[in-house]
From TrEMBL:
One protein family per Pfam: SnoaL_2
Phylogenetic classification of the source organism: Bacteria, Bacillati, Actinomycetota, Actinomycetes, Streptosporangiales
Domain SnoaL-like: 6-107
Protein name: Nuclear transport factor 2 family protein
Coiled coil: none
């Protein structure tokens, strides 16, 4: 059950379509990505994802392991990002989400270090 639950969610994420992804969420659901502020509500989540997706060419998740206990799912993944120059980089991530009684996600948290995604020839790209 755990891998099936996680696979369904990551298949939607990997489709690279924020409008489809937010349909997994309750209207007032929250998404917290790394150390960024949480986005609350479908529109805010979709807007945040559009911004992030504009910085990459694509992504795909390989599930390392996943657990579902009650309404909570924890998934360790290897995420391969396609950069805008078509090169790829893989990083480890952990995602945790909770579903409400209606099956929709009420809280989703992603723990990942994206520094390798935005690095250039071994140095991290920074903006001021």
């Amino acid at each position: 059950m755990s891998d099936d639950e996680a696979r369904r969610v990551f298949d939607v994420v990997d489709a690279f379509d924020p409008d489809e992804f937010v349909q997994l969420f309750a209207e007032d659901g929250t998404l917290k990505f790394g150390n960024a502020d949480a986005n609350k509500g479908r529109e805010a989540i979709a807007t945040g994802l559009r911004g992030f997706f504009s910085t990459i060419g694509g992504l795909r998740h390989r599930i390392v392991r996943a657990w579902t206990v009650g309404a909570d799912t924890v998934a360790e993944t290897e995420v391969t990002y396609t950069r805008l120059d078509d090169s790829e980089v893989s990083v480890v991530a952990v995602s945790i989400w909770t579903r409400g009684d209606d099956g929709l996600i009420t809280d989703y948290r992603i723990f990942v270090d994206l520094a390798p995604l935005y690095s250039v020839q071994g140095s991290v790209v920074t903006t001021i």
